[in-house]
């Protein structure tokens, strides 16, 4: 049976309607694909606690994790991921890539201009549709 992992990911938006996107390094699993920063939920943590910890570890900044905006299960060849995207705001510091190959801020409507980890595609499409609706 495939292992199932529960992963929280941060959708961090700045005041120019840009979203923080992180490029997985070549030596990580799912290499060279873009993702929302975050990671696995550990025993005893709620979603917000897990995300705030992961972002401090990965990006060396403090966020406040807010509500769930997307919850989706995707089956990879080797594992099943329950990817939960939460809205989040930076409360102190500036994100620094300590594990990722690169961090970029992408305009929300252009999120599909990079190649996302397959599990992220529905969340990305939902975010793009939200901007289209907001601007129509
Ligand atoms: N953080 C994050 N991980 C994602 C996303 N989409 C997606 O498929 N993943 C996958 C990549 C990893 O296999 C897993 C998250 O694991 P992790 O960030 O805690 O740790 P990791 O890269 O060291 O993972 P691993 O090599 O130990 O499997 O979820 C996403 O948007 N954000």
From TrEMBL:
Q: Where are the transmembrane segments?
A: none
Alphabetically sorted, this entry's keywords are: DNA damage, DNA repair, DNA replication, Hydrolase, Magnesium, Metal-binding, Mutator protein
Entry keyword Magnesium? yes
Q: Name one Pfam family in it.
A: NUDIX
Question: Which residues are the signal sequence here?
Answer: none
Q: Which cofactor does it need?
A: Mg(2+)
What are the EC numbers? 3.6.1.55
Can you give the residue ranges of the Nudix hydrolase domain? 3-128
> PROSITE patterns, from UniProt?
NUDIX (PS51462)
Q: Which reaction does it catalyse?
A: 8-oxo-dGTP + H2O = 8-oxo-dGMP + diphosphate + H(+)
Protein family per UniProt: Belongs to the Nudix hydrolase family.
Q: What is this protein called?
A: 8-oxo-dGTP diphosphatase
Q: Which organism is it from?
A: Gracilibacillus salinarum
Cite the source lineage. Answer: Bacteria, Bacillati, Bacillota, Bacilli, Bacillales
């Amino acid at each position: 049976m495939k292992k199932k992992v529960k992963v929280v990911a941060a959708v961090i938006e700045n005041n120019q309607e840009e979203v923080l996107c992180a490029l997985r390094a070549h030596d990580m699993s799912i290499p060279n694909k873009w993702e929302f920063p975050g990671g696995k939920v550990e025993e005893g943590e709620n979603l917000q606690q897990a995300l705030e910890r992961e972002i401090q570890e990965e990006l060396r900044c403090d966020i406040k994790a807010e509500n769930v905006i997307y919850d989706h299960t995707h089956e990879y060849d080797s594992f099943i991921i329950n990817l939960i995207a939460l809205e989040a705001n930076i409360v102190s510091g500036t994100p620094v890539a300590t594990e990722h190959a690169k961090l970029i801020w992408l305009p929300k409507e252009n999120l599909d201009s990079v190649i996302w980890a397959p599990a992220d595609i529905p969340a990305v499409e939902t975010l793009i549709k939200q901007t289209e609706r907001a601007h129509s």
